[in-house]
Amino acid sequence: MQPRTHVTLEDVARAADVSLATASRALNGMRVTPQLRDRVLAAAEQLAYTPNAHARALAGASHRTVGVICHDVSDPYFAAVAGGVMRVAGDKDLLVMLASTFRDPEREIAYVSMLRAERALAILLIGSGFEDPHWERALDAELKPYLDGGGRVAVVSRHRSLKVDSVLPENRAGAAAMARALLDLGHRRFAVLTGPPALTTVTDRLGGFRDELRKAGVSLAPADIVEGPFTRDGGYGAMTELLARGLTATCVFALTDVMAIGACAALRDHGLSVPGDVSVAGFDDIPIVRDLTPPLTTVALPLQQLGEKAMELALTDNTGRRRRILRMGGEVVVRASTAKLA
After folding, report:
1. How many CB atoms neighbour CB 129 within 10 A?
2. Long-range pairs for 46-51: beta carbons < 8 A, 24 or more residues apart
3. Which of 40, 86, 327, 334 gets the most CB atoms within 10 Å of its CB?
4. Rounded to whole angstroms, how far apart are CA atoms 219 and 213?
């Protein structure tokens, strides 16, 4: 059989009817059941799968390689954080391998498995963890032997079960501060555009915002909360659905800036003005939002510093492997997308 150069690990996993992580472990000689190993190896042989030669070459220089796994590097949030990682890595003459999971938990586990096989110096996970016990156990099973073997791991954002060095943006406190700022502007009727509920970032930001409103005697009804992907199109779709329900809120809070950008576009396409008809606020302070018309009110996080600090933690010796946690706060920046009510 002639090799198919475009055969991927995903093709092998699909043919063997196993997860990406299991396929990666089997092909890299890691612990899986004999039955699963045989299925994966048979599928790889049938498809004439050949591991990436370039990745194998990197294994020989693994002490100079850092793996960075994020949700979506095209999202300006992750691009900014990854930029901080790369700045510190560049100062240390380290090569950064960057992967996007697109918020697929199985893909995240598979990438960790691959980086273990390539003997990377450090693995950084950038982005929200998942409220999923199965994912937590599977990821911990991949990271523990890597750490036991001298590997280093740091994460940005909350991963509840991982006992590794963490840089934690203050998502709950930042969302609570945003609620106070919007209440101070006179708003009492709110809607929230949220992301997938399995993400810890959603749990923290939505919880902080809702709890602070509750302290002021303001409630959020289920119909006031609309879920969508953490993308511009997700924000556009969520805002469109909110309008279809009959918008009663004077202010819409999107849990990320990219969702807020989509929400503003949807309002504009429906003939509504921001903030004339409805105020809009976001979270993160990605660079573009200050140049919007009107510029976006948001919670500003030190995005590049999040990446820098995570990289520094991963490169700093941690004798005894005591977990180190660095918390980094956000600051509400009120701009012209939110109006003061009389």
Report:
1. 24
2. 46/15, 47/4, 47/7, 47/11, 47/12, 47/15, 48/1, 48/2, 48/3, 48/4, 48/7, 49/7, 49/8, 49/9, 49/11, 49/12, 50/3, 50/7, 51/27
3. 40
4. 6
Amino acid present at 49:
Y
Q: What is the rounded average pLDDT for all residues in the chain?
A: 88
The number of distinct structural domains making up the chain is 2
Considering only CA atoms, which of 171, 158, 338 is closest in space to residue 253?
A: 338
- Retrieve residue 58's tokens: 């990197």
Q: Could you tell me if residue 31 is inside a domain?
A: yes
Looking up residue 19, the CATH number of its domain turns out to be: 1.10.260.40
pTM of this structure? 0.81
SS (HEC) of 89-117? HHHCCCEEEEEECCCCHHHHHHHHHHHHH
Residue range of the domain that includes 254: 171-301
Task: Give the integer Cα–Cα distance in Å for 219 and 291.
Answer: 32
pLDDT in tens, 35-91: 888 898 898 888 887 665 444 444 444 568 899 999 888 899 999 999 999 999 999
